Amino acid sequence: MTKKINSISNKFKIIVGFIICLLASSVKAQDKDRSSFFIGYETFEMTMNKFQNFAGEVGYRFGDKNQIRLMIGEVNLTERHLSSKWESAAVDGDNVEGYFRIYELYYDRYFGKRKNFYYGGSIAYVKDEYNHLISDNSLENETATVGFAIGYRKEKLFGLKHLYANISIPFRYYFNDIPETEWGDTTISAHKFVNNFWFFIGYKF
């Protein structure tokens, strides 16, 4: 099972890398002030989970209207985070810890006068794990997803030319979904249509 998961993960990485190289090579010079590579660190999910492991994005914006991004996440999900109704809708109850892995490729298009708001489509590889702390129950699921995102990007953050903030709200469809699962008084919510909230702070080159 582990070999199968690693094989799918590696194939996804290769496909994503190829798509990024293909899109980047086809980009024409447009607006030099907006065209740039960028890299960002995700702060919202990481703060709620004690900065365990890593989540971030890397991408390229070309012109005023278009960008490609690869979001990478390897997050250990704490019991406190999963049991909080304000922070997570994945678990209803206590005594569950988890792990979340994601490689998600976005193609975004900006709109509006200032070109700060955007919408986009996405494909991803996602792995979810949940472990019950007071029993031997555990759950592991991997899937490909398709989805879309809406977001807002603020450049020249705090007046600094290369600093930016990016708020992204993605919505995903799980091809291999997780059914609702009960472990005693705790329920793992069904994972079919899933969304979350990312907040990146980053640097554009």
Describe the structure concisely:
This protein is of the alpha+beta class.
Number of E-state strands: 12
Strand order of the largest sheet: 1-2-3-5-6-7-8-12
Class by helix and strand content? alpha+beta
C-alpha termini separation: 41 Å
Mean of residue pLDDT values = 89
- Name the CATH class: Mainly Beta
The CATH topology corresponds to Porin
| Helix and strand element order | HEHEEHEEEEEEEEE
The biggest beta sheet is recorded as:
8 strands, antiparallel, barrel
The share of residues in helices is 10-25%
Q: What is the architecture at the second tier of CATH?
A: Beta Barrel
Proportion of strand residues: over 45%
Q: Estimate the global geometry from the Cα principal axes.
A: elongated
Q: Write down the Rg.
A: 18 Å
Q: What count of helical segments does DSSP give?
A: 3
Stretches where pLDDT falls below 50 for ≥5 residues?
26-30
The total domain count is 1
Protein name: DUF3575 domain-containing protein
Keywords: Signal
Signal peptide: 1-29
